[in-house]
Every structure is written in C-alpha cells, then in structure tokens.
What we know:
Blueprint: E1 20-25, E2 27-31, E3 35-41, E4 52-60, E5 70-75, E6 78-86, E7 89-93, E8 98-101, E9 106-110, E10 115-121, E11 128-136, E12 147-151, E13 158-160, E14 165-171, E15 173-174, E16 177-178, E17 189-195, E18 200-204, E19 210-217, E20 220-222, E21 225-227, E22 231-235, E23 243-247, E24 252-259, E25 267-269, E26 272-274, H1 277-288
Antiparallel strand pairs: 1-22, 2-3, 3-4, 4-11, 5-10, 6-9, 6-11, 7-8, 7-10, 9-12, 13-14, 14-17, 15-16, 17-24, 18-23, 19-22, 19-24, 20-21, 25-26
The protein binds cobalt (II) ion.
Amino acid sequence: MTPSTTPALRPELVTRPRAVEQLVTGQATSDGDGVKLTRVLTQPLQRRLDPFLMLDAFGTDNPDDYIGGFPDHPHRGFETVSYMLAGRMRHRDSAGNEGLLQQGGVQWMTAGRGVIHSELPEQEEGSMEGFQLWLNLGAKDKMRAPWYRDIQSAEIPEFTTPEGVTVRAIAGASHGVAGAMQRETTQPLYLDLHMAAGASFTQTLPPAFNAFVYVYRGEIRIGDKQVPQQRMAILKNGEDNDGVVLRADSPARVLLIAGRPLREPIAQYGPFVMNTQEEIFQAINDFREGRLATAE
Ligand code: CO
C-alpha cells in the first residue's frame, strides 16, 4: 500500500437543480431523562421524507440539559444514526455490546427485531452537540438480527472540493468518494458540509429520492431561497431535477440527507416503527414479556 493521497474527485454535474419546497423550524422538546433537544423531522413529515422518520438536533453547554441521557429504552423496525459533533456518549445494549461515541464519530445501529439500550453522556461538563437520525427499514428487514457499528471520526472519509467545501461522507457517495456506510434498500446519502465563505456545493440526486438540508451554523442559499440557521429545507422532487446546488455567502455548516423512499405503510408507536398496527401490538407485547431483544 502506498500512503493515502487525496482521491481524485469526480465533479457532480447538475444542470437542473431542485428548488426548496418548504422550510421547517424544529420543535423544542425533551426526551430520555430530560435531555433538551430540537426535533427537526417530526412525525407529520415521515411520509414526505420517507425513508427518514426523525431527526433530532441537540446542542448545549449546560450539563443540566443533557446529563440524564437516554436510560434503557427499546427500538424495533428501523435504524438509528447518531452523529456527535462535540462531547462523548456511551452506549450499552441488552446483548452486552458497549461502545463510546466521541467527537466527530457516528454510531450506526440497526435495531431490527429489537434492541434495548442506553445512551449516556460520559462527561459532567462541557458542550454536547450532535444529531440522531432515524432511518426506516423495509418490511423484509424489520425483523432482521440487530447490528451496530461504531465509526470513529478518523474512519469517516473527508475531502475538500475545489469550490471550498469540506465534506464528511457519513453514508452514500459524493464526488466519487464512498461514505463510511452504504445501505442497499434505502441508499441513504448523509453528508456533513463545512462551507467556506463564497463556496458552492453541487450534488447529484435521483429525482425520486427524498432529500433535505439542515443548516446548523450560518445560513445558505438554495436557488433564490435563503435557508437560515436551524432550519430544515425540504427539497422538491421535480421529475427533471438532477440534483441540488447549495451556496454560502459566509461560512456555514450543513447536513445534506437523501434516500430512496420505501413507499410502505408506516405504523409508529414511540420507539417501534413497523408496517401495521398488529405488528406494533406484537412489539409492545414482546417488550412487556421480555422477548423484544432476545434471540428468536
Ligand atoms: Co436509542
């Protein structure tokens, strides 16, 4: 092996970029043991943003807002993707797995038929900032065996485009660079973009894929639409559109997320996301009777 060099970037050619369909302001809420967060992608948007079910943003320097963490709780039927910008969170699950999510790292967890886990801050002071995205599983995968991967910051492919954008490729691919994770059915694209003043960023997207942008520092423009800080911009799915172009007049940081819709019924009860009410009752019963996270 030769020492790694910057990969040759393949330009993303977009001639008919998507416009913004809607700007969404997140809802302040708390979850777990009193963790304050902003729910950016809420339940009413699940069909529109299929296969994505939820996006939470958390960011605070006040330990009272995060110290309780998320004690033992179940999940069934989808995947959680936790991305840490600052702070450290330890996770433990009912199968005896344990890991530490650190600054810049990602935990990708496939709950499948069931996981009971805790996510607890491993710090008593300082700032805690990051995101948790819920990605749905197709009907055929909802009851698969649970799985997870801790992706340390250094394992996330990172590159800088000639237009001045540093890209952290968490999932999917951009400019010919494969992200840290690939998923066959939903084909998620998950990019963290650090845009310099005056930079633009171009990404091809299949027209059928649902896509959104979340601005967590600064502000950007998409076409003639300004997207301020802490807003999600849902991108239109025009049949002719071949991607998206983001522009930053001043430094900005943005998540760009897209995926192939499952187009299946969504039945959700808290941490269980299945296709039918019957499957939800089954999940609740399995959880009550201690069968949720046991092998078959
Ligand atoms: Co959880």
